[in-house]
Amino acid sequence: MIDVHTHIYTPSYLALLRSRTTVPYLLDLPDKKAPPRLIILPSDDAASIPPKSRGRPIDTSYSSIQEKLRFMDTHQISTSVISLANPWLDFLSPEEGIKWAKTINDELQEICTQNSEKRLYAFATLPLSASPDEVVDEIYRLCSLLSIKGTIFSTTALGSGLDDPALNPVWDALEDTQTLIFLHPHYGLPNEVYGPRNADYGHVLPLALGFPLETTIAFTRMWLSGVFDRFPNLKILIAHAGGTLPFLAGRIESCVQHERSFEPNGDDGRRGPKRDLKTVLRENVWLDAVVYSETSVKAAIELVGKEKVMFGTDHPFFPPLEESEKEWASVETNLTAVAGTDSKDSIMGGNAVQLLGLKITEKLASS
Predict the structure, then answer these.
(1) Residue 299 pLDDT > 80, yes or no?
(2) How confident is the model at residue 43 (pLDDT cuts 50, 70, 90)?
(3) CB 181 within 8 A of CB 209
(4) DSSP of 192-233, one letter per residue?
(5) 199 Cβ contact list (under 8 Å, min separation 6)
(6) In this structure, are residues 301 and 324 in contact, taking their beta carbons and an 8 Å threshold?
(7) Distance (Å, rounded) from C-alpha 214 to C-alpha 225?
(8) What are the CA-CA distances from residue 147 to residues 118, 253, 311, 321, 348 (Å)?
(9) From CA 76, how far away is CA 69, in angstroms rounded?
(10) Parallel, antiparallel or unpaired: strands 309-310 and 285-288
């Protein structure tokens, strides 16, 4: 079983967050027995919120490779493709972003190679606050890091979204190197969308609804702007089973077909995407199965094809609420959802091996 959606905060990244006093930052509490709090959203940093209740507690499961491997053993996961969890490096100055991207990517490579059984691979992190040319340089440098199998990518990219023309050199480099893009949300939707009682519901609305819609909008802007027309060989893995794409792709396509400002529908000179959405989804897009529902996994398969959906856990997020629980309900829910399809074996590992070129030993394959 291969997990393509599993996160970590590396030691250097935690040190970076601990050195900060503004969002995002890591807050150590006076009670040394209490885990530090990670504050990554402005809404979690209001003065009215006591420090011990801000953000989320970050215990060692967020940074310890040994705990990651124990988690994998508990759930019979042979191989994981780890990635830095949000908010990545978007908040840094261009100079700092370049420095930290190299540091963290080298650190991820070292983490993977230190594991003698070769159970770990990684998605890199790009310095998206830097100039496009500097991002491109890092993309090509990643080719020398053999455990890196792609790069995680935020929905804002250089700061203006995935339809930003300034990204063209970045798309070109990603296509040229055949580097997989792992599109992952972080920013959600404006808090006003959730209403005045949002705080009463914890993180349910932003995580359950904000994240999937953020991802859907980001990818749709990418398609509408013609990115997949200009770079037809891009490869993109979309987190959380594509957000709401499995359910809204038809509506999105219909709206484009009826949009008068797009040629050939209108005559004002503006042009919509040349390749239809169904074709792009089938040829350029992969989805993880982190969606906790058999119905939703089947919808993901219907959207992109059974050979393009892959298992994920989103570890170390969504842990059991009781410390005594060893097996994670979130993982078991995903396993049950995938097991209800007729594509279990390929989703659980075969698709990831084929897409990422993973080398799975006979021992790992039988575990």
Answers:
(1) yes
(2) confident
(3) no
(4) GGG-TTGGGGTTHHIIIIIHHHHHHHHHHHHHHTTHHHH-TT
(5) none
(6) no
(7) 17
(8) 9, 37, 19, 33, 20
(9) 10
(10) parallel
- What does the chain come to in residues? 367
The Cα 231–Cα 266 span in angstroms is 25
Report the DSSP pairing between strands 181-183 and 120-125: unpaired
The string of pLDDT tens digits covering residues 90-137 is 999 999 999 999 999 999 999 999 976 889 999 999 999 999 999 999
The strand pairing partners of 125, in sequence order, are 152
Contact 23, 39 (CB under 8 A): yes
Q: Give me 341's structure tokens.
A: 């399809």
H helix intervals, the chain: 11-18, 65-74, 94-114, 132-141, 168-177, 204-205, 211-224, 227-230, 239-242, 245-257, 277-284, 294-304, 329-339, 344-345, 351-356, 362-365
Q: CA-CA distance, 178 to 198, in Å (whole number)?
A: 41
Per-residue model confidence as pLDDT tens digits over 138-151 = 999 999 999 999 99
Q: What is the pTM of this model?
A: 0.95
Is the C-alpha dihedral spanning 311, 317, 322, 324 positive or negative? positive
